[in-house]
Each structure stands twice: as C-alpha cells, then as structure tokens.
Amino acid sequence: MANKRIERRTDALSKERIVEAAIAILDSDGENALTFRALAARLATGAGAIYWHVADKDELLAAATNDIIARAMADVTAGAEPREAIRAIALGLFDAIDLHPWAGTRLSREPFEPAMLLVSEGIGGRLLALGVPERERFNAWSVLVSYIVGAAGQNAANARRLPRETDRSAFLGGVAAQWEQLDPARYPFVRKLAAKLRDHDDREQFLAGIDLILAGIATVR
Amino acid sequence: MANKRIERRTDALSKERIVEAAIAILDSDGENALTFRALAARLATGAGAIYWHVADKDELLAAATNDIIARAMADVTAGAEPREAIRAIALGLFDAIDLHPWAGTRLSREPFEPAMLLVSEGIGGRLLALGVPERERFNAWSVLVSYIVGAAGQNAANARRLPRETDRSAFLGGVAAQWEQLDPARYPFVRKLAAKLRDHDDREQFLAGIDLILAGIATVR
DNA sequence: ACCTGAACACCGTTCAAGT
DNA sequence: ACCTGAACACCGTTCAAGT
Does the structure show a pLDDT above 80 at B70? Predict the structure, then answer.
C-alpha cells in the first residue's frame, strides 16, 4: 500500500532539497546567514553531507539563483504587444529580485546563468517583432538586459539594507537632506533632485528607465 | 636641514596610507586577497592597529571605492557638447571600474558613495543643457546612472573572472557554441546572438547602450 | 595617542570513519 | 552510495597590554 509509507521520513538529501533549504535561509535571514553549518542544521545532517550533492557554495548559489529566475519567468504573462511584453519580463525580474535580493547580487556578477537565456530570448524575440534592424539587435538586447539586472540589483540591495518602510523613508530623507545642503554653485542639479528622491516609487522609476530605453531603440528602427 | 630626515621612515599609519595599501592589494590580487592580516603585513604593523584608523572592512572598501571614483572623475575631460560630455563621464567610469573591478562590485550595492555625487551632477548638468523637461529629469538621470554602474560592474566582473585575453575569447567562444546548439524552435534569437557575442568589443557595446538611452531621452525633450 | 599580537567566534572545505 | 562530525586553514574583530 502506498500510504504505508506515509509516515516515512522523506528527507533523504538531494540537490533540490538542499537548494530549497538554502533559498529559505537566504530569504529569511540574508546572504550572511547562509553557511554550511546553518544549512546542515536545517536539514538535520552534517555539514559535510551537503558536499556529496553540491560541489561548493558557488554552485549552491548558482542553483538557487537559477531557480528564482526560472520561476519568475514562468510566472510572467507576456501578451502579444512587444513593448508590453518586454515591460512584463522586466517587471517580473524586478519583483523577483526585490523578493530575493541575493539573487540580484549573484546575477550582476554571473549574467550567464542558464535561466537568463529565457530572459534574453523573451526580450530578443520582442525586439525582432519591433522590427529592430539586425545591426542594432545586439546592442538593444545588451542595454536592456544590463539595465534590468543592474537596476533591479541596485534596488534590491537598497531595500535589503533598509528592511522596513520607515527605514527607507528615513534613509532617503537623510540623503535628500544632505543633498539639499550641498553647495548650490557646485551641485545645482543634485540639489534639485533631492525632492524627487524623497517620494519616488522604485518600481515606477525602474519602468520609466525601460520606457526611455525602448524609446531609444525605436529611433533606430 | 630638511634632508636630515630623508631616511626617516615615513610610515606612520594613517587612513590614507591604509586605503592606499588596500587598493594595491585589491588591484593586484583581487577582493579575496584583502584581509586585515595581509594589509597589516604590507604595512608592517599588527592587524589590530588598522582599527585605530578605520572602523571596519566596510569603511575601508567605501574609502577605497570613493578614491577610485573621485580620481576617475577628476581625469574626465568633458567638453561643452552635452551628449559627448555624458559619454566621456560614462566611459571614464567604465574604464575605472574595468581597472578596479572590486570598486564596481561595491558601487552596485552602495550607489550613494560621496564621489557618485560628482557623477550625478556631471550627468545631470548635461541633461539640463540638453533641455530635458523637469518631469523627465529624475528618470533620465536614474536610467543613466543605473546603467553606467550596472553595466560597467557586470563587464568588470567578467573581465576579472577571465584575467587573460585568451581566457575571455575561450569563455565567450564556449558560451557562443552552447547558444548555437540551443533548440532553434525555442531560442531563435539567442542562437543568432551567438556570433555577435564572439567578437564584440565590450567598450563599444557599453557606449552603444549609452547612445540608445540618450536617443530615448531625446524623444521626451 | 597609537600600536601590538594573542584570543575569540566564526567561516568553507576536507576526510577518515561509519552505515 | 551516502552520511557524520571532527579537524584544518583560514577569516573579521576585540582587547589587554605595551610605548
């Protein structure tokens, strides 16, 4: 009978279970909390056992990041309109990285993770649909992917450093206050930026960047 | 006589000397080589002595990064034409981060370093000169700075992982070969990208991204 | 005031020993 | 084949003790 084994501990180690546990630790306690000792404790095993399934910490982070990106891309519902589809993909990644900032850190340094192929193909296909000429496709793809990964990672790093909403307001308010006290002769632009810094929405700002890039791409069509 | 003291050891510790030594270690041996023990050895002192001048490793990295950016910005000769000036600033940062990849890593996570004010003001002032309307200035500034820091950091991370030119060719060749073997039905765009990947110039690619963004900004003028 | 260096509380990774 | 956990070679940081 199948349910004879229902009480059986199903916790034999596997790469999937290890990666799953790693993601849980990374999400709840941050990058510094992911140690082989903490991971072993959570999996109720010895630290060395993990090395039977995973080569080292780098492979662990790579697998965890790949999971996050693959899931995020699977959740994206990109419609037929190419510009909207690119925005949807970009926002999907932005939100995933916002939720899993450590994945953003990893991605900025290792942009050739397998799951990034889904992102590249998703965006690239829409560039074709937009009629971007061959000679500009590489550059258009490159600027979009660089911006998405870079800006999303930077945003998530900020958010992680300032866990609560009040922390964020206080921090940005503090930076803005500093900016407003800069020498007006030397920093006229930054001084005027201060007000916007205080009450901008990160997601909107990110998307506005995508739109500006798409507008630029449209000019080389 | 002044030269009576010429033989005198001038190596009293100071934050500047410590930061200078840290930059030397980071540049020659990479991020992982910067330890307080290595730093103390190079400065011929005890590890703990450094803490008298620097609060912790974070402050050390912040100061080192700030030095690099400030120097790079001081070296930029930005002419009167706004678009050219923005390109010059962007390239100055790109080259500095290429030379000091660890600064790129730091900058992607801590974009509010003081020296970045010079970058923001330099770019922002040119956006004013370009006639970017008030409501678009924040977004235009944001997309440029995010892209510059993000793309330069990603490029430098790649370059650091592949120290020699042949390593880089081999790596990109390998990635391109993988891309060419992808299922044409699922990855038509990425497959076609492979050829470009093999022989592109990173600096040109970066600059092409700046140009696309500037073209987008021009459309909202 | 500034420096020394041992000590503390960690790490990632290895490996002999177990089952 | 897979797991255990002590051991190794490191870290950043602290701090009593020196000058």
Answer: yes
